[in-house]
Write a structure and sequence with these properties.
This protein is of the alpha+beta class and 89 residues long. Helices cover 53% and strands 17% of the residues. It is built from 2 helices and 3 strands, in the order H-E-E-E-H. Strand 2 and strand 3 form a beta hairpin. The longest helix has 31 residues.
Length: 89
């Protein structure tokens, strides 16, 4: 039984570590891939975004990152909830 629980926990950890959520602001100026807990990678800023002021661009990047992080964190919560219900290996 202990080995089964340990196997399930390891599988969940791997699944959580693999969570990546592509996200883009509504105007398509900022794109990135978000992970849980505020992690992100592959930030791309469209040339059109440079027409914004530095403050506006920073705000747009921050909003996009927060949106992606929230989505990634929600996926992690679903993974944990499914595991608790026995719906994941």
């Amino acid at each position: 039984m202990f080995q089964d629980v340990q196997r399930r926990i390891e599988a969940m950890q791997q699944e959580v570590q693999a969570v990546r959520v592509p996200v883009e602001d509504p105007e398509g100026l900022v794109r990135l891939i978000a992970g849980p807990g505020g992690a992100f990678e592959d930030l791309a800023i469209a040339d059109r975004a440079y027409r914004l002021s530095a403050e506006e661009l920073a705000e747009l990047v921050t909003r996009t990152m927060k949106d992606g992080t929230a989505r990634a964190d929600e996926r992690v919560r679903r993974i944990a909830a499914d595991m608790a219900k026995g719906e994941r290996p």
